[in-house]
C-alpha cells in the first residue's frame, strides 16, 4: 500500500468510575525491564517502511478504548464459533494489528505472559506519534487484557456528526469537550475512505468546504469512474505525515475532509479551542499527551477481570 493512512508533560493517573486497575509509569521495570524498548524498536521498524502506521495505531487505540475500555478487545480475531469486534463496521478497515503481533512475539520470548496486549497497543501508539514529530510522554501501564470481544458493543461516534452530537460519546467515557477537540487532532496524520465523506461532495456540495479541496477530493474519489472502489484521502492535506497542529489550520481554512473535523472550527462550542491549537503547536502537543493518557486509562482491568494474553489475536482459553 502506498504511504498515506508532548516540553515537559504532566503525567497523572486519571481514574474513572469504571476504571478498576491502577496504572503506573514503569509498571514493568522489575518484571520486564526492556518491555518499552522492545515495543519502540518494533514500531521504529514498521514506521521506517510505512509512515501511515501512526494514523492506523491512533485509530486502533481509540477504537479499543471506546468500547469496554482499553483492554485489547479490538485485537481479537473472529473464529468459526465466535465473532469479535473486528467484524463491527467501524473496525473493518482498522489496521496496525501486525505491529502489535510483532511486539507481542518478541515480548513473549523475553518475558512470557507478562506484558498485556492492551499495554502494547498504548505504548506503540505513543511511540508512533513521537516518530511522526509529536512529543514523547510517559505512559502509565499495567492494563490487563479483556475476556470479551463483542461487535454488538461497538458504538463509535460517526464522522458525520455535529460537535454537540459527538460530545456525549466522549463525556460518557469521562472525557471533556477539550479532550474531544484535542483527540480529533490525531487526524493530522490520518486518512479516510471516500465513502466516509462522499455525501459532502454530492449534489451542490458542502458550502462549508473550500472549493479547491472539494475539487481535489472529487478527483481522488472519482465516484462515477470507479463505482466499486473506495479510495483514500488525507485528512490533513498540508503536512499529511507530520504530527503537528496544521490540522487545525486546515479546519480554519475550511479544508476539513470529514464533517465532524470541519465543524470543530465552525461550532461556537469548539471554535476557540481550534484557534488556540492552530496558534501554538507546543500547546497542542501538551494537551494531546494529557488527553491520550486519559483515553488510555478508560476502563482498564485488573487480574480479576482480565489476564495477559499469550497471543493478542486469541483468548488464552478458547471460547
TrEMBL record:
The positions annotated as site (Transition state stabilizer) read 59
The highest taxon in the source lineage is Eukaryota
Q: Where, in this chain's numbering, is Ca(2+) 1 bound?
A: 64, 67, 69, 71, 73, 85
Name of one Pfam family that matches:
peroxidase
Question: One GO BP annotation here?
Answer: response to oxidative stress
Q: Which family does it belong to?
A: Belongs to the peroxidase family. Classical plant (class III) peroxidase subfamily. Belongs to the peroxidase family. Ascorbate peroxidase subfamily.
Q: What's this protein's name?
A: Peroxidase
Amino acid at each position: 500500500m502506498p504511504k498515506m493512512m508532548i516540553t515537559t508533560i504532566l503525567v497523572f493517573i486519571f481514574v474513572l468510575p469504571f476504571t478498576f486497575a491502577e496504572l503506573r509509569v514503569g509498571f514493568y521495570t522489575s518484571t520486564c525491564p526492556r518491555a518499552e524498548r522492545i515495543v519502540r524498536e518494533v514500531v521504529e521498524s514498521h514506521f521506517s517502511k510505512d509512515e501511515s502506521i501512526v494514523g492506523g495505531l491512533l485509530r486502533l487505540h481509540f477504537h479499543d478504548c471506546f468500547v469496554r475500555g482499553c483492554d485489547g478487545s479490538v485485537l481479537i480475531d473472529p473464529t468459526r464459533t465466535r465473532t469479535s469486534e473486528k467484524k463491527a463496521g467501524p473496525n473493518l478497515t482498522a489496521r496496525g494489528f501486525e505491529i502489535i503481533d510483532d511486539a507481542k512475539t518478541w515480548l513473549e520470548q523475553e518475558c512470557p505472559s507478562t506484558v498485556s496486549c492492551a499495554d502494547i497497543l498504548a505504548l506503540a501508539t505513543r511511540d508512533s506519534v513521537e516518530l511522526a514529530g509529536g512529543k514523547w510522554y510517559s505512559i502509565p501501564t499495567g492494563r490487563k487484557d479483556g475476556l470479551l470481544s463483542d461487535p454488538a458493543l461497538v458504538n463509535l461516534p460517526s464522522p458525520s456528526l455535529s460537535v454537540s452530537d459527538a460530545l456525549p460519546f466522549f463525556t460518557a467515557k469521562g472525557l471533556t469537550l477539550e479532550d474531544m477537540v484535542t483527540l480529533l487532532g490525531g487526524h493530522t496524520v490520518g486518512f479516510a475512505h471516500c465513502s466516509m465523506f462522499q455525501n459532502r461532495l454530492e449534489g451542490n456540495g458542502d458550502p462549508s468546504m473550500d472549493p479547491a479541496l472539494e475539487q481535489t477530493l472529487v478527483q481522488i474519489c472519482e465516484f462515477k469512474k470507479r463505482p466499486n472502489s473506495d479510495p483514500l484521502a488525507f485528512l490533513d492535506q498540508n503536512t499529511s505525515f507530520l504530527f503537528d497542529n496544521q490540522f487545525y489550520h486546515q479546519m480554519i481554512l475550511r479544508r476539513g475532509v470529514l464533517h465532524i473535523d470541519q465543524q470543530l472550527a465552525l461550532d461556537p462550542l469548539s471554535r476557540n479551542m481550534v484557534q488556540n491549537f492552530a496558534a501554538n503547536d507546543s500547546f497542542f502537543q501538551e494537551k494531546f499527551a494529557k488527553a491520550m493518557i486519559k483515553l488510555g486509562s478508560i476502563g482498564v482491568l485488573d487480574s480479576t477481570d482480565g489476564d495477559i494474553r499469550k497471543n493478542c489475536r486469541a483468548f488464552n482459553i478458547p471460547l
